[in-house]
Amino acid sequence: AQSVTQLGSHVSVSEGALVLLRCNYSSSVPPYLFWYVQYPNQGLQLLLKYTSAATLVKGINGFEAEFKKSETSFHLTKPSAHMSDAAEYFCAVSDLYSGGSNYKLTFGKGTLLTVNP
Amino acid sequence: NAGVTQTPKFRILKIGQSMTLQCTQDMNHNYMYWYRQDPGMGLKLIYYSVGAGITDKGEVPNGYNVSRSTTEDFPLRLELAAPSQTSVYFCASSYSLRYEQYFGPGTRLTVT
Predict the structure, then answer these.
(1) Are the beta carbons of B103 and A44 separated by less than 8 Å?
(2) How, if at all, do strands A105-107 and A111-116 pair?
(3) Other Cβ atoms within 10 Å of A25 Cβ, number
(4) Which whole number is the average pLDDT over B33-60?
(5) Which of A23, A55, B43, B67 would be a feasible disulfide site paired with B35, CB 3.0-4.6 Å?
(6) Does the CB of A103 have a partner CB in chain B at under 8 Å?
């Protein structure tokens, strides 16, 4: 079964510092990968997605992520954190090869990002 | 274009009561999903649908039922509510398996 590991349930950075949120997945075939953001009391919003095109993916709000097959990783980065980036971030993996009734989007447990002034 | 809407936003149920969580999308998506979110646990798939009249179980379907009579609507039914069903419920939709899922704002349910 597919699994997603987000290292660090809570990451704290200073405003203007680099943001690095880690995501590793387990898959023997290239999956589709997503990062979602959830602001307090809201639903999830797509930040970016990897669909087997370019390995460096740019998303909204200055975020980007790099797919590294050899490391089975899809870490999320932003060069300079802003106070408005404080939210919970979820990595998700889509197992497209299961097909039929076995398809699902597997989410990591989330990383809460705090940005300090 | 409202996207995915959910009602109600909040609900408190007593043990043993039943209720239906409503979900509607106006993007003409074939795929729709119900998730529950518990603190520190990410999202767990309850049920999903690949089109009107077709539904299937996800990871945690026990205690829930769904139906899909139209493309737009995908209600989730809770029968005999239990405290373990206290959670935040999200409905989502997507154009296909390859595309991103769009989420509703959620329903916060408490069972006491």
Answers:
(1) yes
(2) unpaired
(3) 20
(4) 91
(5) B43
(6) yes
